[in-house]
Design a protein that fits this description.
Helix content is 8%, strand content 47%. It starts with a helix and ends with a strand. The protein has a single domain, classed as Immunoglobulin-like. The radius of gyration is 14 Å and the shape is globular. It contains 1 helix and 10 strands. It is mainly beta and 130 residues long.
């Protein structure tokens, strides 16, 4: 499900004001959560069907963010990493909360040339779906 660009832009602007932000969409009983570096290593809560957008710093040329760890029964990636609207140098990775449970989401920044090498950087957040 692609979200309207106005909603994503509003969430991006508000990011400077809060490390995690929820926006309840008027057309459905769904919230959109924006997770930034300020939540790294912390826990956030979401309801089933909520969108969880994770913003991480873009790597250098030849690097990409990949999911290293997640319980796919609780949280599902819904699209590829893309540049965050209005935030140069930031990559946004979309997820959807599926059903109640807890998972640790670990993202790894990998060098494309070094297959099998450990990530050069990781991002970790615990997601509780209730």
């Amino acid at each position: 499900m692609r979200l309207p660009s106005r909603l994503l832009a509003a969430v991006a602007v508000a990011t400077a004001l809060a490390p995690s932000l929820a926006c309840t969409c008027p057309w459905a009983d769904v919230s959109v959560w924006l997770v930034t570096d300020a939540l790294e290593g912390k826990t956030m809560r979401a309801k089933p069907k909520d969108e969880v957008l994770v913003d991480v710093p873009a790597g250098s040329a030849g690097q990409r963010w990949e999911v290293v760890e997640v319980d796919a029964h609780v949280l599902e990636r819904t699209g590829p990493p893309e540049e965050a609207p209005g935030k140069p140098g930031v990559v946004r990775i979309p997820f959807k909360a599926l059903k109640p449970g807890e998972t640790t989401l670990v993202l790894g920044l990998h060098d494309r040339k070094e297959k099998g090498a450990p990530p050069v950087r990781t991002f970790r957040v615990t997601v509780q779906v209730y």
